[in-house]
Amino acid sequence: MILRSKGGDALVDPPGRDLLVSSAHTFAELASAIDRTFARWDLSHLHEFRLVDGRRIVMEDADEFEASPNDLDERSHSLSSIGLSSGDTFTYVFDLGDDWEHRCAVLRTDVDPEEEAGIVPSGILPIFGWGTIPDQYGRLSPDDDQDE
Fold first, then answer.
1. For residue range 105-121, what is the model confidence (pLDDT) as tens digits?
2. Predicted local distance difference test score (pLDDT) of residue 148
3. Structure confidence by residue, pLDDT tens digits, 4-22
4. What does each C-alpha distance from 19 to 64, 73, 127 come to in angstroms?
5. Structure confidence by residue, pLDDT tens digits, 51-92
6. What is the three-state SS of the chain?
């Protein structure tokens, strides 16, 4: 996945990460893994997945006013239950106010985890990455968080 933009503004040199994901992992598990992989610590924000066909996969806490009858519960659906396969793409948006937008792609479906990572992981595992991950709140040093 590639972190493409924040608030609609494209990131220069966007960072990316490859995750080893089972087709049985739920989208809730995938959201949690993406947030950990991109060093997010304030997880009080809403997030959602957007499929190319217009469907959304949303949190249990999703805003009832923005809910659609076509929305899918992230805890109940996995990549395989949605029918995603190699080459398919979708979007993950973290913090629906700041709109951290990630372009996600299913790169391969024929992966042997032990061959790829040397283990059979119990959860979703980051296996490759590039670029610098921006701070969730734009801080550049620990002093940026101090009250003046």
1. 999 988 999 998 899 89
2. 44
3. 999 999 999 999 999 999 9
4. 31, 22, 6
5. 999 999 999 866 655 667 789 999 999 988 999 999 999 999
6. CEEEEECCEECCCCCEEEEECCCCCEHHHHHHHHHHHCCCCCCCCCEEEEECCCCEEECCCCCCCCCCCCCEECCCCEHHHHCCCCCCEEEEEECCCCCEEEEEECCCCCCCHHHHHCCCCCCCEEEEEECCCCCCCCCCCHHHHCCC
Q: How far apart are CA 65 and CA 143, in angstroms?
A: 38
HSE-CB at 64 with a 13 A cutoff on CA atoms is 0
- Of the candidates 104, 105, 81, the one whose C-alpha atom is nearest the C-alpha of residue 72 is 81
65 or 133, higher pLDDT:
133
Report the C-alpha gap between 73 and 62 in whole angstroms: 9
Among residues 22, 30, 21, 36, the alpha carbon closest in space to that of 48 is found at: 30
Q: What is d(CA 60, CA 56) in angstroms, rounded to the nearest whole number?
A: 12
Full set of structural domains in the chain with CATH? 2-145 (3.10.290)
